[in-house]
Design brief:
By secondary structure, the protein is α+β, with helices and mostly antiparallel strands. Among the domains are: 98 residues, Thrombin, subunit H; 92 residues; 105 residues, Sandwich (Immunoglobulin-like); 110 residues, no CATH class; 132 residues, Heat Shock Protein 90, CATH 3.30.565. The protein is 17% helix and 39% strand. It has a five-stranded mixed sheet with strand order 59-65-64-61-62, with no helix packed on it. The protein has a five-stranded mixed sheet with strand order 66-67-68-70-69, covered by helices on one side. Strand 12 and strand 13 form a beta hairpin. Helix 2 packs antiparallel against helix 3 and helix 2 crosses helix 6. It is elongated and about 180 Å long. The relative contact order is 0.05.
């Protein structure tokens, strides 16, 4: 989260010593570099360049890589002597055998300086690059402008050569040689001898209107051509100066050859050496990067110093002991710190230890024993508990308190509205000390507790005190009784109560091991992980001048903006969701916060001084955060794609001539290395990337600086990556790299088209083969059906013949015999009538058999074809049944095969027969037509109709036979009937 509410800070805090800055070290013996680092520079893209004895290194704050120019553009030498980044972005590389310039992917060498040891490099305000060379009695000073080299000196004029170059605030160019300094321009060059410069002058720096000159005997200050020693406050011995660096905030850094680095600031000097953690005591280079960090190269490694949001004041700054047990802010603006080494007080920017001779005006000094809990009452007295007992300071005089036994730790002290001071002692219980000094004791058992109080606070409205207990629980104690109590079951945070405080709105806050709890008007709720806190264990909390809450937890120092605290509290007060999330800013070890798993056992743990700073205790001293002046890195980090590796083959991403990388087919493993250049806290930078053409959305990958893809398809891709610095400031533009993965032959468009065409051809061929098989099968089925129908028809013809030639002849003979018998009997015989009836029955049966024979073998169908047979049968049916039939038969259907025609004729017979038997119709319509390769027969009537639901199982035998005949011809049979609205039968068969 960006601290947008805070002023920007780009430099080190000048009030702090070197030891109070964040220090990171990279040591040569641990593999950071091969050989010592002689020079440092930073190019506009943010990279830090390191010149070493064995080549040039490029460093992004996390990864250090040896830099190699293109194979056809070698450096003059791998021994790098100096580096310079000019205003046009060029990197000038001085080596033991010449000078080179790297710009826009091209390395340029200067023939006039070939084979010469290059030492100092400097660009003046006019853009001229000045080069100092070293040679045996032949050193030179050369100026390069528009790639033209012009050299001065030679012979013994500059002795062994030029050692340092500097341009002061008045545009004077200074250079140093072994025995003095030259003011080279403007005007006529002037030489100023420096007899005391034993090893030559290695560095210059400005000091207002004076020039500082670093020598082996310390620093000389040159004013009006007169050199005088430059006093370094607090220095115990003379520095052997190697490098000088004025930082942007007014401090002066002094690199020495035997005492590490010295830091001159605010009128005092402190040092940082090998014993303090510096990589080495011999300093070879000093550099301030664009974000205000100070880089120091030594013979043994590289060090970085940067500002911290939360610096620590420890023994080096005058604290009586490293372990700060309690911190108290008093009304006079002082900060009191209890430590195992006694009581310290911070006033006017300095620490003093109380108990020494200067603080015992009446001979009654504070004990030098451990100082534990602290408290200031309304009378201004400072109460102090420790191993020597408990008492208070009054006008710098320590007064022991009688009636309160010593020896047992005091974890908290508070004062109620009546002026009574309450002391929570671990072993003996709760003590109340009145203004008059009377002491009243209450044991923990009387309060119903087996543990003891770990926190106290007075109720500013109702009087009495609130007590937080070691093993959990919160109680309000007044007039000798516990009036209210809360537990975890009521919503209180679990575990020990570490701190209690009332805010400006009268709410009680309790820092517990299970979160930050709030009590107001009987409502209790707790802030913890579910609200967005990074962990649960809260050690203490305090409000700053802007009402934001600062919360010290086991996972760091947390800042919750006032607006979020108020919104969450309002939600709790109005019975809304207590799980509302709050926005937080986390300060961790990279910001200087030293975390601890458990809260300290004494109080108070934090205090706010009159200037708004928050002081709090730690095991390594007292830490301080200034909410109004938090260092914010507002510079978006440059983002670079460093390398693309496909199947272990690296590709050049820096070539301007090849903006799109082209990769071979079948790339399986793609690795993209990227970085962002913020050197303040590179370990806290966050990255996100997206591969256009593959990723649907951005991928948040935290601090990872590599992207991996497997089995990418052929095509064009664009990789985009963005990053944020340690303050959460994002470079939204980021960096991009375009690349193309070529297709294999079988992944090309033409191959795909050919494959698709081949598949389609194969499918079409298979389809045609299948159609032929189906057609042949259908033909075979049709032929079989036709054979079956022919066989059926033959059988019908045989049956018709048998009926006509056999049964009908027998019936005719029987009729004739009955006629003969009738003639032989008397006319008035009763048998005559019987014989007549039998003859009529036989004649009717013969007529029926003749009609059946005719139906079984319709001669008109064979002689005239289906249309004529349909017309004739309809006329015959109409005449016999007295039901008019509207019949139309298309002559084109006459070409239908004999078997299919016979099947349709039989369907017509069955349909008309059903109408006659069941329909009670007054009109029948018959249509026979041929259209679109189909022959259609439709028979409809206006009779009583049928319920189609009752025909779901297939209908009667007649319907079944009609449907089967249609199916045998691969046709379709449709039956539609509604009660009271007639019936329609439709048959469609393929024409053949």
């Amino acid at each position: 989260m960006v601290l947008a509410c805070c002023p920007l800070s780009f430099a080190l805090n000048p009030d702090l010593d070197v030891s109070q800055y964040a220090h990171t070290v990279w040591k040569t013996r641990e593999g950071f570099a091969k050989g010592s680092i002689s020079s440092i520079a930073q190019t506009p893209d943010g990279y830090l360049w390191l010149g070493t004895d064995f080549g040039l290194l490029r460093f992004d704050g996390v990864r250090n890589a040896a830099w190699e120019p293109p194979a056809d553009q070698p450096l003059p030498s791998q021994s790098i002597t100096n580096l310079l980044v000019s205003r046009d972005g060029s990197l000038w590389i001085g080596t033991a055998k010449g000078l080179a310039r790297w710009k826009d992917g091209k390395l340029t060498q200067f023939a006039q300086l070939a084979g010469v040891v290059i030492y100092p490099l400097h660009e003046d305000r006019q853009g001229t690059v000045w080069v100092g060379t070293i040679a045996l009695n032949d050193g030179k000073l050369c100026a390069i402008q528009d790639s033209v080299v012009q050299c001065h000196g030679g012979g013994d004029r500059f002795g062994h050569g030029v050692l340092a170059l500097h341009e002061d605030g008045r545009s004077n160019l200074w250079m140093s040689v072994s025995n003095g300094v030259w003011r080279w321009k403007p005007g006529t060059p002037e030489f100023h001898p420096m007899p005391g410069a034993l090893d030559g002058i290695q560095s210059f720096a400005d000091d207002h209107d004076a020039l500082l000159i670093g020598t082996a005997n310390g620093i000389q200050r040159l004013v009006n051509n007169k050199a005088t020693p430059y006093p370094v406050s607090g220095a115990t011995r003379q520095f052997r100066v190697q490098r000088l660096l004025p930082d942007r905030d007014g401090g002066l850094w002094i690199g020495t050859s035997n005492q590490g680095v010295a830091h001159v600031h605010q009128g005092r000097t402190d040092t940082f050496t090998l014993r303090d953690g510096l990589s080495g005591d011999y300093v070879t280079a000093l550099f301030e990067d664009r974000e205000g960090s100070i880089w120091i190269a030594t013979l043994s490694g590289l060090d970085r110093f940067r500002d911290l949001a939360v610096p620590t004041f420890a023994v080096a700054q005058g604290l009586s002991s490293a372990d700060a047990l309690s911190v108290l802010g008093t009304k006079d603006g002082s900060i009191w710190i209890g430590t195992p080494g006694g009581l310290s007080r911070w006033r006017s920017g300095q620490f003093a230890t109380l108990g020494s001779d200067r603080y015992k005006p009446d001979g009654n000094a504070a004990p030098r024993s451990s100082a534990h809990s602290l408290f200031q009452d309304t009378l201004g007295r400072i109460w102090v508990s420790g191993t020597g007992g408990i008492g208070y300071f009054e006008q710098d005089r320590f007064v022991p308190q009688s009636g309160v036994p010593g020896g047992s730790p005091v974890h908290a002290i508070a004062e109620d509205t009546e002026g009574n001071v309450w002391i929570a002692q671990q072993d003996d219980g709760l003590f109340r000390v009145s203004r008059g000094g009377a002491v009243q004791h209450t044991s923990w058992a009387e309060l119903g507790r087996k543990d003891f109080a770990s926190a106290l606070v007075a109720d500013p409205v109702r009087g009495g005190i609130w007590i937080g207990f070691f093993e959990s629980g919160l109680a309000y104690f007044n007039n000798g009784q516990v009036r209210v109590s809360y537990s975890v079951a009521d919503g209180l945070g679990e575990g020990r109560i570490n701190n209690l405080r009332f805010d400006r709105q009268g709410a009680l806050w309790a820092a517990t091991e299970g979160g930050l709890s709030r009590v107001k008007s009987g409502r209790l709720a707790t802030l913890h992980r579910r609200n967005g806190l990074p962990c649960d264990a809260a050690h203490w909390d305090i409000e700053d001048d802007a009402d934001s809450v600062w919360l010290y937890m086991s996972c760091g120092l947390i800042r919750i903006p006032a607006v979020d605290v108020e919104a969450w509290a309002a939600g709790v007060d109005n019975d809304r969701d207590p799980t509302r999330a709050v926005h937080i800013t986390v300060f961790d070890s990279s910001d200087g916060v030293k975390t601890r798993a458990d809260a300290a056992g004494y109080s108070p743990q934090a205090a706010k001084s009159a200037d708004g700073r928050i002081w709090f205790s730690s095991l390594e001293g007292v830490m301080v955060v200034d909410p109004r002046h938090l260092p914010v890195n507002a510079i978006p980090p440059p983002v670079n794609v460093e390398q693309v590796t496909a199947d272990r083959r690296p590709y050049d991403v820096a070539s301007a001539a090849n903006p799109r990388l082209r990769m071979p087919p079948l790339v399986r493993d793609l690795q993209i290395d990227y970085t962002a250049l913020s050197l303040v806290a590179p370990e806290k930078m966050q990255f996100r990337y997206k591969l256009e053409g593959r990723d649907a959305d951005w991928q948040d990958v935290g601090t990872r600086r590599q992207a991996f893809y497997t089995d990418l398809s052929p095509g064009n891709y664009r990789f985009r990556v963005t990053a944020s610095n340690n303050s959460g400031v994002w470079n939204e533009t980021g960096a991009t790299i375009d690349f193309t993965i070529a297709p294999a032959y079988y992944q090309t468009t033409w191959f795909l088209a050919l494959s698709v065409a081949s598949v389609l051809a194969a499918v079409w061929t298979a389809h045609r083969v299948r159609l032929r098989i189906v057609e042949r099968h259908q033909r075979e089925i049709s032929a079989l059906n036709e054979r079956m129908m022919k066989a059926q028809e033959q059988e019908r013809i045989r049956i018709a013949g048998e009926l006509h030639d056999g049964v009908m002849q027998e019936m005719l003979a029987a009729t004739m015999m009955l006629g003969t018998a009738k003639r032989r009997i008397a006319d008035d015989s009763a048998a005559t009538a019987t014989i007549d009836k039998v003859q009529q029955k036989l004649i009717q049966a013969g007529t029926d058999l003749r009609q059946l024979s005719h139906d079984l073998h319709p001669p008109l169908l064979q002689e005239a074809g289906l249309p004529k047979a349909v017309q004739g049968y309809c006329e015959q049916f109409s005449a016999a049944g007295s039901i008019p039939v509207d019949c139309h038969a298309d002559d084109s259907a006459g070409e239908l095969s004999r078997g299919a025609a016979l099947a349709l004729f039989r369907i017509l017979q069955e349909a008309l027969g059903n109408v006659a038997k069941h329909a009670s119709a007054s009109r029948i319509t018959v249509r026979l037509a041929r259209e679109d390769g189909l022959v259609t027969l439709v028979v409809s009537d206006n009779g009583v109709g049928l319920d189609c639901g009752g025909l779901a199982t297939g209908g009667g035998l007649g319907l079944v036979m009609m449907r089967e005949r249609a199916m045998q011809l691969n046709g379709r049979f449709e039956f539609d009937s509604t009660p009271g609205h007639g019936t329609t039968i439709r048959v469609n068969i393929p024409f053949r």
